[in-house]
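Lab meeting, item 3. Inverse folding demo.
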């Protein structure tokens, strides 16, 4: 019998909408607004920059238009503040005395796989931004290379995620076993596709599914061939999509006019990721329906009744 997942999107649509609004506003609207407002801005925006640096203990800058490195610094610094807030909020949930949000049998301060991946991605992006800003005014190109490089965090992130997913698929296909505890899995378990770890950690922590969801999700994966096939396919599709998107946006960032690349690099991936998310929902619902039908046939053979047809991970109802 397939284990029921104790999580449903019904009643959570408003919370999901709010969460995605919070995710999108800093990198898209605030980030782009500050960059273009300061780069091509008016005296009012210059005063905003001056107040920003004054708040950091520096001398206020009165002519931001004469210092383009400053313009590149402010939006990324503001975005960094939002990132730190998100990290602190998530870690706080993981290290509570109650193990509710932590991986199964995990020590209090071990965190989860998604969080460690988050840290690795943050280090890479921070290194890109810091090294780009450190160039200063040494190149006589009107900061063109700096602008293009600082527009690359999203493509870099997609390359990184796609490569981790590829590695997980290779290890899973070769039946490589974990030499140590990895998230909720004990040593000796075969490495699982990357989407498995992402879904488990995000739903359990950010979606408040908790320990109950982690346990049910693990058992569902172990017991259902259809569920395992779905996780594998999702990992492959997202990996390929990220490689393609990253390649496309890298080309765009280095080929388009300089004035456009910041918007393309930072905001362009979001609509495509949204399309992929919609496809994922319908694909998951289709597989869960197939899984329920197969379970219903088995129960009919055993003289049992099928359970509630609602799919707990992603409801089959719209």
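The presenter then showed the designed sequence:
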């Amino acid at each position: 019998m397939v284990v029921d997942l104790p999580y449903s999107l019904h009643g959570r649509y408003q919370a999901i909408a709010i969460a995605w609004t919070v995710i999108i506003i800093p990198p898209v609207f605030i980030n782009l607004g500050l960059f273009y407002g300061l780069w091509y801005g008016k005296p009012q925006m210059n005063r905003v920059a001056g107040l920003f640096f004054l708040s950091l203990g520096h001398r206020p800058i009165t002519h931001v238009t004469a210092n383009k490195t400053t313009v590149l610094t402010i939006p990324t610094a503001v975005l960094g503040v939002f990132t730190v807030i998100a990290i602190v909020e998530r870690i706080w949930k993981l290290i509570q005395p109650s193990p509710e949000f932590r991986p199964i049998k995990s020590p209090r301060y071990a965190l989860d796989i998604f969080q460690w991946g988050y840290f690795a991605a943050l280090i890479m992006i921070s290194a890109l931004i810091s090294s780009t800003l450190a160039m200063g005014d040494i190149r006589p190109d009107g900061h063109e290379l700096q602008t293009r490089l600082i527009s690359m965090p999203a493509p870099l992130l997609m390359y990184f995620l796609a490569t981790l997913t590829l590695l997980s698929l290779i290890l899973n296909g070769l039946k490589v076993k974990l030499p140590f505890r990895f998230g909720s899995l004990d040593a000796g378990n075969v490495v699982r596709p990357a989407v498995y770890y992402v879904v488990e950690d995000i739903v359990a922590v950010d979606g408040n599914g908790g320990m109950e969801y982690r346990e049910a999700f693990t058992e569902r994966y172990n017991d259902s061939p259809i569920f395992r096939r779905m996780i594998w396919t999702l990992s492959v599709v997202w990996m390929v999509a990220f490689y393609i998107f990253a390649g496309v946006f890298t080309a765009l960032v280095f080929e388009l006019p300089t004035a456009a690349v910041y918007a393309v690099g930072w905001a362009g991936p979001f609509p495509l990721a949204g399309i992929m998310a919609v496809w994922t929902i319908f694909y998951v619902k289709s597989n869960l329906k197939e899984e329920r039908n197969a379970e219903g046939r088995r129960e009919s053979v055993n003289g049992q009744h099928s359970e509630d047809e609602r799919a707990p991970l992603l409801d089959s109802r719209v």
